[in-house]
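Annotated sample (chain length 387).
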Amino acid sequence: MNNFDFCVPTDIRFGKGQIQCLPEELGKYGKRILMVYGGGSIKRTGLYDEIMDLLKDFDIYELPGIEPNPKIASVRKGAAICKEKKIDVILAVGGGSSIDASKHIACAAYYDGDPWDLMLDRKRMTKALPIAVVLTLAATGSEMNPGAVITNDETNEKLEIAGKILYPTISICDPTYLYTLPPRQTAAGVADILSHAMEQYFQPTDDAYLTDRITESLMRTVIHYGPIAMKDPENYEARANIMWAGSLGLNHILTVGKGGAWSCHPIEHELSAYYDITHGEGLAIVTPAWMRSVLCDKTVKRFAMFAKNVWGIEADNEREAAEKSIEALEQFFKSMGLPSTLKEVGIGPDKFEEMAREAVRTSGISTRSYYPLNEKEIVKIYEDCAE
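Output written by the structure step:
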């Protein structure tokens, strides 16, 4: 087991009605709030009005319209508002996109240059505004971690910024806020959570026994409750377990004692950077193809363990078990209504080579991942996903 540091300073308030603490908690930082959110869903559900009523004694400035793959242009707008209005605290209302944009805005508020500079050189990130979260989508785990992924559509780059100063100070996680999610968003969120767990499970370290068992439990939880939430959107038990799995899936508890670069995420990030597709849908397409690409004598033992401990698959040999686990995952994604080919999301082969180069350039997939892949091998994965 590798050495590790583990500290999650985010105050999680989980359950029905926890939003009532918002005035007291935000009041610790001041009265001037920048509220960051996406489309109109929080207004349609009444959450916007509830928040505005709770915070009626605060000065609230708004940054709506955060994109599903948050763009650097939105970060620039938010940072400008923070500087002009002397914002005390940022309130992100939504899913990972609103939270990620808020994190970048929080540190860009203290930076005099272009916010994209911080993505290219994290050493320039020295200070950040406090960030509070009201979570409305279980997927990214951004409500309980210090990372954010932002897209620069001018350069077709999708990169991560991360640092301890970007942990949200408090996150309100009320599973009832997931009741009104469209089925597509629920399914994509489940795929994202499952992928986070798999990325940390399929890493070079094999002796982190406890971490692996925790990860398997989380994967089984998502696989069990995902279909229930799709069928019965207001099933509190299902929504609560999925929401908590999303937070634990990327607060680093699943990677303690392990370590290594991720694989499917850098491959998918290029798809959503170039084509702006939904991240979870891209992962559902890419992951089975990646598994087939890296399944070999070196990896078959862990794949067989994944088959047995996550899917309950018994087989005559490890190779057969491994192959059946890939089929099980693929069928699970399809049962959730997720796409399985790039053709289904309107992506052709034109940029496969360019995206593969970027995946290698912007990540450790070719040197530090579970099974290192070069550009040619990544192109082959894209081709296998084509149709």
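Annotation: The chain has 15 helices and eight strands.
Annotation: The mean pLDDT is 97.
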